[in-house]
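Late entry, written up from scratch paper. The run itself happened at the end of the previous shift, but nothing got recorded in the book at the time, so transcribing now.
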Amino acid sequence: MRAERTDSSGNRWRKVYTGGGSHFRHWLEQFKEIYGEENLAAEEQDATGFACFEQGGEKMYSIWLKLREGQT
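Output as recorded:
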């Protein structure tokens, strides 16, 4: 999985979390509180190869944070 990406508008994004369940919901709320919802994106990931997700039938997600100009 990639750790950074650039969207079609030229915005740079960094992956800050990958997981699922209550941990995912907790981290998403914490990131929203700190960075604002407009600076976050969450997307479902393919859990193939991650035994804990495959065995439990749980979905896996990543949280992406929009980087500001000059931020590395």
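The chain is about 30% helix and 35% strand.
(Scratch paper discarded after transcription.)
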